[in-house]
Amino acid sequence: MDLQSILIAAGSMGGLGLFFAAGLAIANKKLQVEEDPRVTRIMEVIPGANCGGCGFPGCAGFADAVVKGKAKADGCPVGGADVAAKIAAIMGVEISGGERRVARCMCQGGLEEIAYQGEYLGALSCIAATLVSGGKKLCEFGCLGLGDCAAACPFDAIKISANRLPVVDNDKCTGCGKCVDVCPRDLMHLHPISYKVRVLCQNHDPGRYATKVCTRSCIACGLCEKKCPFDAIHVIDNLAVIDYEKCKHCGLCATVCPNQAIEHIRKKKIVKEDAAAAGEKTAVSAAQP
Amino acid sequence: MKQKTAIQEFLKGLWDENPVLVSLLGLCPTLAVTVSAINGLAMGLAATFVLLCSAFLVSLLRKVIPNQVRIAAYIVIIATFVTIADRFLAAFTPDISKALGPFIPLIIVNCIILGRMEAFASKNGIGRSLLDALGMGAGFTLTLLVLSSIREILGSGTWFGLQLMWPFYAAWKVMVLPPGAFLTLGCMIAAANWINTRRRS
Amino acid sequence: MSNTPKIIIVLTLITLISGAVLALLDSYTRPKIDNYRKIQENQAIAEVLPENDRINEVAKDGYVFYEAYRKHELVGVAFQVSGGGYQSELVLMLGLSPDFSRIIGLKILSQVETPGLGTKIEKDESNKEDPGWFINQFKDLRTLPSISYVKNASPSRDTEIQAISGATVSSKAIVDILNTHIKKAKAARGIE
């Protein structure tokens, strides 16, 4: 083949390339303003598997949401802590100041504490139990103990204890929020890991009912409210609620609660319970169907 | 994420991230050309060739190609190598080229290749990209070879054109027809998932 | 951003190099491919025409007629015809007697029909003695008034062939291609 036809081929391809490149360059210039350069930088640090685990349509959607403030820097469940740190660095200090959050079940009504309404023989799923009768426990607000949260956890961080309550392993929990979404009673809450004091009850019934269904319920007595030196805990709609803006995590409220519905992490008892639960988890997971 | 060793980088394409059985990419050639083992093998090797060459170039140029035109650049690179493969097949193995028909040119838009360029070669060094391409190509080729062997043996009673089944074997014609491709692929994916589940538990 | 020139330069260079590489590739492979095609075609022409001492190439109305002469007498005409099969284009080499009333030979140049079914038009592996039985049926077949096919029965007339069971569409496609092209080619050559 002679030189001429090579030149024709190269020339026509090159011409096409030049034409399209010019078009793309112009489009790039004209349409460029809208995108925040941080989106591209976040795209570079996240894994890029488009798995959708964050709840956004693909990695680009997530990066966009982070920049727009709709997603947290640690919202990528696959990337884990280092990716969260990198995103936080890109987004600037204010979000990197945001603490690692972990899930916690806001109910202490296990098999021993709760009163029963009958036997539940249906499918072993909290959602199924909610649909038929609300399970066997009498409390309408409490944990059903059938482990939808544990099944939903992508990181194996939730175990159901022998007392049939979810126990979160803080080391494994990434704060992805899958358990929060799946719990039919909205009992899984994400809290910064430094929070020491929590009201572990969601029962809005008046005290005289609440006290019947569970030995660890909040009976809206108001003792905590009176005890708190910082005006940080209030009984709202028959339930003690902590205002974390004011709370200093002193744990005085926990000392006065008659039903020990308030958890204070320094309390030895809770630590022991967690440890006991952790010890039992192999036995329980084997027993689970 | 933990950096994979060179061996792992290669092996992941064979099983854990097998482009066909796990990612379900490149199904068009997978389903269409696998009527005989030789076709499956040829398609797999052609795709591997394109994958390797493109991975090398894309990885080499990854810092030069601006982000805005990367897809256009990758497609041109891939298309060039596909044309090379197509012309070489036509020149040296005309029968295979005829049998694969339009599916060789279609490698250009095979998701496996563009996907690996976008997800891997554009972010990693030449060595790793080549290993990744080799692994993915080998995974694709092996899967196609198994799929096409099953279809050819059951559907025509032959393997690479050799009479394999007993003389009066009634060939399952459906296996060489399009439904056979879906049936076989479905069974293979089911088997792969079953093995994975067993291995995990 | 100031990477506009970079975008243009990089993409243009890549396409430029690609074009040059492909042109070189073409110059290297084209003779081989053409050569192969020519060999196939010549083989096919030789197969579908009777014994001859000279072949004359005449192009007319979109057909290329290969006229076979023996001692200056026209003994047969071959030309390439094509049409849609069941799932691919069928390309055939057809050899006819000078007055187009009789098929001398038919050869399939290219087909990608269903393996094991449609491919029997070229080679039927289930028939050990005569794998090419289908295509051989066209030898000495009469073309007037038109060729037809019968299913699951032996042909009774000299313009009939037996279709392949399970590949009627492919069989019919060949018959159709022949009928249309023989008519058209006749007009092109001015044969009544």
Write the layout of secondary structure elements.
The complex is a heterotrimer of chains A (289), B (201) and C (192).
Chain A lengths: L2 H29 L5 H9 L12 H11 L11 H12 L1 H4 L4 E5 L20 H7 L15 H5 L5 E3 L5 E3 L9 H5 L5 E5 L4 E3 L7 H7 L9 H5 L5 E4 L2 E4 L9 H5 L5 E3 L3 H20 L2
Antiparallel strand pairs in A: 1-4, 2-3, 5-8, 6-7
Helix pairs in contact in A: 2-3, 2-4
Chain B lengths: L5 H9 L12 H6 L4 H24 L9 H23 L1 H7 L10 H11 L4 H31 L1 E2 L2 E2 L14 H23 L1
Antiparallel strand pairs in B: 1-2
Chain C lengths: L3 H45 L5 E7 L2 E8 L2 E12 L4 E8 L6 E8 L22 H4 L11 E3 L9 E3 L5 H22 L3
Task: Walk me through this protein's architecture.
- The complex is a heterotrimer of chains A (289), B (201) and C (192).
- Chain A has helices spanning 3-31, 37-45, 58-68, 80-91, 93-96, 126-132, 148-152, 178-182, 207-213, 223-227, 252-256, 268-287, and strands spanning 101-105, 158-160, 166-168, 188-192, 197-199, 233-236, 239-242, 262-264.
- Chain A is an alpha+beta fold and 289 residues long.
- The longest helix of chain A has 29 residues, at 3-31.
- Chain A is elongated and about 95 Å long.
- Residues 93-97, 267-272 and 278-289 of chain A have low confidence and may be disordered.
- Chain B has one domain (6-200).
- Chain B has helices at 6-14, 27-32, 37-60, 70-92, 94-100, 111-121, 126-156, 178-200, and strands spanning 158-159, 162-163.
- In chain B, helix 3 packs parallel to helix 6 (111-121) and helix 4 packs across helix 5 (94-100).
- The relative contact order of chain B is 0.19.
- With 192 residues, chain C is of the alpha+beta class.
- Chain C has one domain (49-189).
- Chain C has helices spanning 4-48, 133-136, 168-189, and strands spanning 54-60, 63-70, 73-84, 89-96, 103-110, 148-150, 160-162.
- The longest helix of chain C has 45 residues, at 4-48.
- Chains in contact: A-B, A-C, B-C.
- The interface between B and C is medium-sized, with 30 and 25 residues.
